[in-house]
Design goal:
MFS general substrate transporter, two-stranded parallel ribbon, mainly alpha, Growth Hormone, Chain: A, 470 residues, MFS_trans_sf, two-stranded antiparallel sheet
């Protein structure tokens, strides 16, 4: 039976708060997995004696799963709803995590790569569900604020992973063994099972595409008309998400190597700890972004942050020592709001295309599979510091997308202005023909109108002001 559809505005405050809190808990789940992934990248280089390029197979498997699986996840949720999609995602997540145990026991790097792919399939399903659900769980105006707030808890979990690693992966005998990896991922699997049980017993209102389409049509919007491939905001959002995620992943994947290689006496344990501080900076930046988005348009803010990411990434690739490390922290700060802003901008007012569009944008996370091998190859041939020229290209593409949306918004505002001026002129002429004595008031000399018909209260204002008042 198809789930009963509703929209965020149909929920009571208690239902809305419960659904928001429950789905937000999922962001912690994949934030923790992602934080551990970046540290495993460096840990496996020591344990298995592999190159930086070979270690990026983990990123290729993790983010390649998004590219392969996310479209299926979007299709599946269109058929059965968000809740069953969440169950599937958590099931795959737990299954992949539990098989880290035999991979560690038999010391098979290929086994870790395969398990990481399964975890990626589970997390891509959860991202299609959770990101989309949070975005539509309320008014479109504050979608970016809601998603940044929920994604902030992903950041909380992402710095917990490196902190655990700095204590258990890189100290003493653990630096060259896989025993602690077994126990950490066993705990991850248990977390997935517990969340799955909670979602089974908890009601979760279904936000349906038909209801979303009716909601935007009710306020005069028809953005979802036409085939999906003509939803250009979403299609180019996929390109921007691919470029940005690829850049973000490469920056994080080689952060431990970068910090260790800066020549200031930082070992791998200390580098892992500093990386966790980078993730804390990222998380703080995301919560600050929630406040800023209350006042600034998401596309404008994304344009500014994208430009800052480009500048600081260039500095990271060129500056040695603590100067480069400081720029790396700044880069993590300005990355903070980029992913959720791209998602909400790309899926805005999609109506009947919402779940398909969510699947496409999450598919863009697959960019994390393509950038790390390029950076790893450059790091092996040159230096880790110079390899940070690779993610810089991703920030350029993201900034172009955001700036394009800003320009598009201004053009549309101009169209609305012209349309309102035409409507205003037509109304003036209609009233003037019916009431000739008002002709001078309604059709004054160019550039001026009379705001009040009473001689004692007359005030000269521009046409623009009258249109704004209208």
């Amino acid at each position: 039976m198809a789930p009963v559809q509703t929209t965020g505005s149909d929920l009571t405050r208690q239902q809305w708060g419960f659904a928001f809190a429950l789905v937000t808990s999922l962001f912690f789940t994949w934030g923790f997995a992602y934080g551990l992934l970046d540290v495993l990248n460096a840990h496996f280089q020591q344990v298995f004696g592999i190159s930086k390029l070979q270690s990026t197979l983990l990123q290729l498997a993790y983010f390649g799963a998004y590219f392969v699986w996310a479209p299926f996840a979007g299709w599946f949720m269109r058929k059965v709803g968000y809740k069953k999609g969440i169950h599937i995602g958590l099931g795959l997540y737990s299954l992949g995590a539990i098989f880290f145990w035999p991979s560690a026991t038999y010391e098979k790097y290929g086994g870790f790569v395969g398990c990481t792919f399964v975890i990626g399939c589970g997390l891509s399903t959860l991202e299609v569900a959770a990101n989309s659900y949070i975005s539509v769980l309320g008014t479109p105006q504050y979608a970016a604020m809601r998603l940044n707030f929920s994604q902030g808890f992903q950041g909380v979990a992402s710095f917990a992973g490196p902190l655990i690693a700095s204590r258990w992966f890189f100290q003493g005998e653990n630096a060259y063994t896989l025993g602690t990896v077994q126990w950490v991922y066993l705990a991850v699997a248990v977390l997935g099972v517990v969340l799955n049980i909670l979602f089974y017993f908890c009601p979760l209102p279904e936000i349906g595409e038909d209801a979303l389409a009716a909601e935007i049509h009710g306020v005069g919007l028809a953005d979802d008309e036409g085939p999906f491939y003509k939803q250009y905001r979403c299609v180019f959002g996929f390109v921007a998400q691919t470029a940005y995620t690829g850049a973000q992943v490469t920056v994080a994947s080689f952060a431990v190597n970068y910090l260790e290689a800066q020549g200031v006496g930082i070992d791998y344990s200390k580098a892992s700890q500093l990386f966790s501080f980078c993730q804390i900076t990222f998380t703080v930046g995301r919560f600050i972004g929630v406040a800023i988005l209350h006042w600034i348009d998401p596309a404008v803010l994304l344009t500014f942050y994208g430009l800052c990411c480009f500048i600081f990434c260039l500095c990271v690739s060129q500056l040695p020592g603590y100067s480069g490390i400081g720029c790396l922290f700044a880069l993590f700060f300005f990355e903070s709001i980029c992913y959720p802003n791209i998602f909400t901008l790309g899926t805005k007012n999609l109506g009947r295309h919402t779940k398909k569009g969510s699947g496409l944008i999450v598919m863009g996370v697959g960019g994390g599979a393509w950038f790390p091998p390029a950076q790893g190859g450059l790091a092996d041939r040159a230096t880790t510091r110079r390899s940070y020229l690779v993610p810089m290209a991703g920030y350029i593409a993201m900034t172009i997308y955001a700036a394009g949306l800003v320009v598009d918004q201004w053009i549309k505002r101009g169209e609305v202005y012209v349309r309102n001026m035409d409507e205003l002129t037509a109304r003036r002429e209609a009233v003037a023909s019916a009431y000739p004595t008002t002709a001078l008031i309604l059709n004054p000399p160019a550039g001026l109108v009379v705001k009040s018909g009473l001689a004692g209260d007359s005030e000269k204002v521009s046409d623009e002001e009258l249109v704004e008042d209208a």
